[in-house]
Amino acid sequence: MPRKTIADYLVYDTPQRLAHAAAEVFAKYAADGVAARGVARIAISGGSTPKRMLALLAEEPFRSQIDWERLRLYWVDERCVPADHADSNYRMTREQLLSKVPFAEENVFRMEGELNPEDAASRYEATLRNSFRLEGAEAPAFDLVLLGMGDDGHTASIFPNTSAIDAMGTLVAANHVPQKDSWRITLTWPVINHGRRVVFLVEGQAKAEVLREVLLGGYDPDRLPAQLIRPENGQIGLLLDAEAARRLPKSGKHGDAETGTLELTR
């Protein structure tokens, strides 16, 4: 039988409202993880929306809502650059959030982009196995995985027609991206799909058509790798701004957001 996934989305009229909604989601699943298991493990991505979200998390009311001592922070992907490089996802997070809240260094699990890509991927896989205490073929179950999506249909650092699309036997992959003439380190899509909650943050008019294709078009993950994200729990959340969502059907309202639901089949 085809596998079905329910995609629920909330559409906000501005990128700032979208970022605020993302901060609320972050705080909620951080609290849920602590309540259920004593710690919360969250994997984040780079990009403009996460940057605004991180800045909000460092301010009230979110700063006081989050139990920073029990939060474990991971990355979905990283560019192969040093930690202090302007393109580093870790650097952005450090500047926007980590330097402003009481976060213990031992609870921050960054990808080492300064290393050889294969070594960096191998070391991050070991980090995941050790910090989650995994054995054998087990995959980590993040309390929340926050993803972006490019206007080419990529997510994490799983780009169209690259080797990471076929990386199923590892937790972390070194992925050469010819389109960017660079290497990236990325969680593999089976790991992302094992997350307890997976949420896309997408904004901008340039994403509208590809988002429609990812959600409503034929299944073609080599061309649209974001279609690989079909969580095992059968649910995807999407937080969108009005420009990104302009090609999607809306069916209702939730607070200050328009809502929609789609059933995805592959």
TrEMBL record:
Q: Transmembrane residues, as ranges? A: none
The source organism is Terriglobus roseus
The answer to whether keyword Hydrolase applies is: yes
Q: What does this protein do?
A: Hydrolysis of 6-phosphogluconolactone to 6-phosphogluconate.
What does the entry give for GO biological process? carbohydrate metabolic process; pentose-phosphate shunt
Q: What is this protein called?
A: 6-phosphogluconolactonase
EC numbers for this chain: 3.1.1.31
Pfam families found in the cross-reference section: Glucosamine_iso (PF01182)
Provide any one GO MF term from the record: 6-phosphogluconolactonase activity
Q: Which reaction does it catalyse?
A: 6-phospho-D-glucono-1,5-lactone + H2O = 6-phospho-D-gluconate + H(+)
Please give the pathway this protein is involved in.
Carbohydrate degradation; pentose phosphate pathway; D-ribulose 5-phosphate from D-glucose 6-phosphate (oxidative stage): step 2/3
Instruction: Enumerate the UniProt keywords alphabetically.
Output: Hydrolase
Its taxonomic path starts at: Bacteria, Pseudomonadati, Acidobacteriota, Terriglobia, Terriglobales
Annotated Glucosamine/galactosamine-6-phosphate isomerase domain ranges read 14-235
The entry sums up its family as follows: Belongs to the glucosamine/galactosamine-6-phosphate isomerase family. 6-phosphogluconolactonase subfamily.
